[in-house]
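INTERNAL AUDIT FORM
Audit reference: QA-55
Scope: verify that the stored structure record matches its stored sequence.
Auditor: D.O.
Record contents follow.
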Amino acid sequence: MSNGTPELKYFSFGTAGKKVLSKSLAVGTKTGYRLYSLSSVDNLDQIYENESEDICIVERLFSSSLVAVVSLSSPRKLRVCHFKKGNEICNYSYSNTILGVKLNRARLVVCLEESLYIHNIHDMKVLHTIRDTPPNPAGLCCLSTNSDMCYLAYPGSSTTGEVQIFDAINLQSVSMISAHESPLAAMAISHQGNRIATASERGTVIRVFNISDGAKLYEFRRGVKRCVSICSLAFSIDGLYLCSSSNTETVHVFKLDDTREIPQMPDEQQSWMSFLSKAVTASANYLPTQVTDVFNQGRAVASIHLPFQGLKNICTIVMVDKVLRLLVASSHGYLYVYNLDMEEGGECTLWRTHRLDGQLDVVDSPKPIKLKEVNTAKLDKNLKTESSIDKNLDTGPAVVALDTNHMSEDCLDYTLSVANPVGSYAGALRGHPPSSQSDAENRVDSLTDVSEDRFNLNDDSEFPPVI
């Protein structure tokens, strides 16, 4: 973060559970990755730090110890780790660069430029491969956090804003939604799994569709003066709000309900607006569709103005300290916490700014911070590097070192080289001895003998392995 130079290569908010939205943040840097938890608006706790290699993708499942990691030095290899125990559960090598990783309790999806791989997260077996997708150099895709309505969305075209919806449980295509005329730039599926929000490369309009039938439910006007690059879209846990961030300084919050309250205006303005509304309605058949659409589009009910622009950032809406908050993480290394007053709306108040470079100080706070309010708890240094993991683990089996010189990086499709001939993670989960495991089970690169230290898949407290 020195000299204002962006240091963060990747950052993502934790996926959501069935009842609560995870308040965790994963940050990838050129020297490793860090995991944070926002226990309160005043305390951003660093719960893990790994300084092994340059990270381009890091995704954490819920608030668990399960993390999927991709490094710049090995961009075709996905590593799935249990960071609390220091175990690398498995790794997969693909035929091309990994551009995106999404996961929930049931599935893990890996996005390449022209294909997607759907894994069963319980044993990491490849269940299905979607091949020959339209070129997707940004790795744009989204997976429902609700494993009961486990939909996967990805671009259906590289020239228009078509969205392809795929059922990741039943492994079949659901529908294709013509969302925009321009190519897609951002997507998000609600935590209920029934709606999807989309934005195109123009970035002026955000639309929300019903996934089951593709019907357009909402259309919001983000702006008209300039085209922007939408960085992220995110639903609140209850599905009532949608936030959007871009490469500008403004983050918008939209309300998704059918009873929008229109503020009262003076009588003279009411009569003028009534006349204008009637005029537009009467001439709807004569005016261009683009003109009438503008009058029907919703506007943001709340917004914030960041102290910067031109940088990548992501946003989410969570409940912290029993108050609705808007979180914005930026590539220049800061997390901004804003209060959301959805009754009044308007400009939101900045409450805290936290650093994401491993430092513990809090800056730009509207009120003084007492020293005792800052949580200075640091992760045990023994967990920092993989080389010392096998010496310092309190529980779990010893980690078998991976001989990277013998790992094949040129595997085609999902055929994987087995690093540990004694057995696979998938087979160990089923209790199979090494000699009886199938070829499908041996596709996983097993780094540990997990027969005595596997996830109890029938116990939610162990899978995901909650810290």
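Auditor finding: record pair retrieved intact. Confidence is low (pLDDT under 50) at residues 1-6, 259-270, 287-296, 364-462.
Action required: none
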